[in-house]
Amino acid sequence: MKRKPYIFITRKLPAGALEQLYHSFEVSMWESETESVPRDVLLKETQKADALLTMLSDKIDREVLEAGASLKVVANLAVGYDNIDLKTASERDIVVCNTPDVLTDTTADLAFALLMAAARRIVEAAEYVKEGEWKSWSPLLLAGHDIHHKTIGIVGMGKIGEALAKRATGFEMEILYHNRTRKPEAEEKLGAQYVSFDELIQRSDYIVCLTPLTAQTKGIFNGGSFKKMKNSAIFVNASRGPVVDEQALYEALVSGEISAAGLDVFETEPINADHPLLTLKNVVALPHIGSSSTETRMEMMDLCTYNIEAVLTGKQPKTPVEL
Ligand SMILES: NC(=O)C1=CN([C@@H]2O[C@H](COP(=O)(O)OP(=O)(O)OC[C@H]3O[C@@H](n4cnc5c(N)ncnc54)[C@H](OP(=O)(O)O)[C@@H]3O)[C@@H](O)[C@H]2O)C=CC1
Ligand SMILES: O=CC(=O)O
Fold first, then answer.
1. pLDDT recorded at residue 76
2. Same fold: 6-99+294-313 with 103-285
3. Would you please indicate which residues are annotated as catalytic (active-site) residues?
4. For 36-51, what is each residue's pLDDT tens digit?
5. pLDDT score for 216
6. What is the pLDDT of residue 139?
7. Residue 5 near ligand 1, beta carbon < 6 Å
8. CA-closest candidate to residue 201, choices 252, 263, 264
9. Where do the D-isomer specific 2-hydroxyacid dehydrogenase NAD-binding domain residues begin and end (predicted)?
10. Low-confidence ranges of the chain (pLDDT < 50)
11. Of 93, 139, 155, 232, which sits with the fewest C-beta atoms within 10 Å of its C-beta?
């Protein structure tokens, strides 16, 4: 009898999200919600897998892809796919899928929330109350920066960047953006202005990074870029940690070269609890939760399961990554 195709899922997901897979395939998953699958288990499971449903924290490199003699598809539960070696996938005719669109608004909500939290010192203020430090109302108590009518600069005006810009229009902000390619339709729709990277970082009160992590974007926010920003600038990163030189960011925040930062992503994740950035009051740090609403995460799981089933049954997946 022909064996059922085998799918390995690298993290414990709610069984309900996978129902459609259980009918036609053999499915197993790493039984932890919070800890990544160990490398040796991933390699062993991949040896017999026709499909992998992976997390952005799994390194799907040449070694993993070559271990999968019958591997046909890798569905990543994320829109970013910098954790996957696309070159090897292409050489081996392995389809790679991601989860664009379904997470756009949720991630833009979080990026704007991070911007607001850093600007208005929300986390610091909430801790101040809980720690019993609030003794009286005072005129400049925890005074932050205005958001309305300020200038936001979006580096990476893609789907999430545009959704963020739409939110910024509600605050009557001036919108600058920088991409490799200009987007006239976004300029018209959102009143956004295309500028060079340098002009964006010099003119913006809020600088938000929403690019993918690539060889070109790695380290684009470094000592030189922080020096060019206003001293009152607030830097928000909701893209990937390695776009930032964290040591340079720390120095810029301590020296007052920039005012504050809101960070959802870090060079190493999870970030070490004793990392210097986490000692600063002017840093709002989140554990990479950009797309983390229950509704959106369920949609992302549905999209991954759809894509896997499609590839394994000879149909077109909805969201293949261009290889
Ligand atoms: N914090 C979180 O939890 C989440 C983080 N993300 C991150 O956000 C990223 C963006 O997602 P999404 O908006 O859906 O993707 P899109 O592909 O729609 O947008 C990416 C944008 O980045 C621009 N870009 C690419 N390379 C460069 C470059 N070298 N310099 C300047 N701009 C560049 C692209 O424009 P062009 O090609 O013209 O340069 C494009 O407009 C993801 O790749 C992921 O890393 C996504 C979801 C959640
Ligand atoms: O970081 C999250 C993603 O979807 O990419």
1. 98
2. yes
3. 240, 269, 288
4. 999 999 999 999 999 9
5. 98
6. 97
7. no
8. 252
9. 112-290
10. none
11. 139
Amino acid at 5: P
User: In the CATH hierarchy, which top-level class contains the domain 103-285?
Assistant: alpha beta
Structure confidence at residue 95 (pLDDT):
98
Helices (H) and strands (E) in the chain, counts: 12, 12
Among 208, 209, 207, CA closest to 232: 207
Q: By C-alpha distance, which of 293, 299, 300 is closest to 110?
A: 293
| Ligand whose nearest atom lies closest to the CA of 57 | 2
Model confidence pTM above 0.80: yes
Backbone angles phi, psi at 111, to 5 degrees: -65, -40
Q: Please state, in angstroms and rounded to a whole number, the distance separating the CA atoms of residues 167 and 95.
A: 34
Domain ranges in the chain are 6-99+294-313, 103-285
The domain at 6-99+294-313 falls in which architecture? 3-Layer(aba) Sandwich (3.40)
User: Which of 103, 159, 211, 265 has most ligand 2 atoms within 8 Å of its beta carbon, as the pocket-test mutant?
Assistant: 103
Distance 23 CA to ligand 1 centre (A): 35
80 lines ligand 2 (CB under 6 A): yes
pLDDT, the chain, mean: 97
pLDDT recorded at residue 17: 86
Q: Could you give the CA distance from residue 84 to residue 65 in angstroms, rounded to a whole number?
A: 9
135 CA distance to ligand 2 middle (Å): 41
